[in-house]
């Protein structure tokens, strides 16, 4: 199922396997195996790399409906965050701080 999503999303973006491989740093042979469902258990790191290049979240890569739940503006924001160099830990910390501030203001 993951392979089908990778292939369909890659083709939607009119991207070749070679191009996705070069941009993501994931071996072309691995992507090909994934798309043909020969490789069915990719690591989170591989999923992060591929999702980043396809401008989607890992959830959207794994679950088709997750992509439909996120509107275009959120997709753009997520792409900007992923490309900004902010680590996941830093983003979680920021969100945590915002949640705390909101609770304090109640």
UniProtKB/TrEMBL annotation:
Any one cellular-component term (Gene Ontology): cytosol
Domain annotation Sin: ranges: 61-99
Listed transmembrane segments: none
Tagged with keyword Transferase: no
Keywords: DNA-binding
SMART domains listed in its UniProt record: HTH_XRE
Any Pfam family hit: HTH_3
DNA-binding found in the keyword field: yes
Residue ranges annotated for the HTH cro/C1-type domain, each copy included: 6-61
GO molecular function ontology, one term from the record: protein dimerization activity
Name of this protein: Helix-turn-helix domain-containing protein
Species annotation: Peribacillus frigoritolerans
């Amino acid at each position: 199922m993951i392979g089908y999503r990778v292939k369909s999303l890659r083709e939607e973006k009119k991207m070749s396997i070679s191009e996705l491989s070069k941009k993501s740093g994931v071996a072309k042979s691995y992507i090909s195996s994934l798309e043909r469902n020969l490789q069915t258990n990719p690591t989170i790191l591989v999923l992060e790399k591929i999702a980043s290049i396809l401008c989607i979240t890992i959830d959207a890569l794994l679950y088709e409906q997750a992509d439909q739940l996120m509107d275009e503006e959120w997709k753009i924001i997520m792409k900007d965050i992923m490309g900004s160099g902010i680590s996941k830990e830093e983003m979680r910390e920021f969100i945590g701080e915002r949640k705390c501030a909101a609770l304090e203001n109640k």
